[in-house]
Amino acid sequence: MSELSDLEQTFLVTLCEIVEGQTASSFSMYDIGDKIGLDRDSAKKTAEDLIGQGFMEIRTLSGAVGLTDEGLAHAQGLGAGNGQGNQTVAGLANAPVVSAEGAEAVTMMAATLKLETTTLNLSFDSMAEVVADLNTLAAQLNSPKPKTVIIKACLTSLQNGLAQTTGSKAQPMIAKLLEG
Question: What are phi and psi of 88, to 5 degrees?
Fold first, then answer.
């Protein structure tokens, strides 16, 4: 099974949170797409990819999808859920190099932030700073040994830059990452 893209991860986690981890529940793939900034075609393609990988299943002809048991477990591993034995987001340790789990959590936060940047109403300078911080995070995560101190500095900068916004799903993820 292939590794999920950032978009697929965000889609899967969003579905899991909407249905509150219930595999018997379903929700419109198009409404999930709308929540994360996708048009209907992109939402359908992303849902189809997740269905093909066994993480979701189609429930109605109008586009309602639900989680499979494997999808639920994977979404919870990515940080979805309400604490039922899982941390919402892994924190970063104080080791010099970021762990694979920490890197995955940072990647998930970055994907979430990228998808919501158009709705945050940031000034041009604030948006430019967010983009620069996301680019620095991406560069560090591509390194064979991502430096914890650089990742944490970027997260702190993002946290400060998002302080004047409301409704960001990335803000609590950043706070949790910085707790670790």
Answer: -65, -40
Q: 3-state secondary structure string, 107-119?
A: HHHHHHHHHHHHH
Identity of the amino acid at 56:
M
Strand ordering across the sheet containing 64-67: 27-28, 64-67, 56-58
**11 within 8 A of 50, measured Cβ to Cβ:** yes
Q: 162 and 104: one domain? A: yes
Residue 29 belongs to what domain range? 6-77
Same domain, 106 and 68: no
The 10s digit of each residue's pLDDT in 107-143 is 888 888 887 887 888 889 989 999 999 999 999 999 9
The residue type of 52 is G
Structural domain contains residue 172: yes
In a domain, 12, yes or no: yes
Q: H or E segment at 105?
A: helix 100-116
Number of domains comprising the chain: 2
Contact 162, 84 (CB under 8 A): no
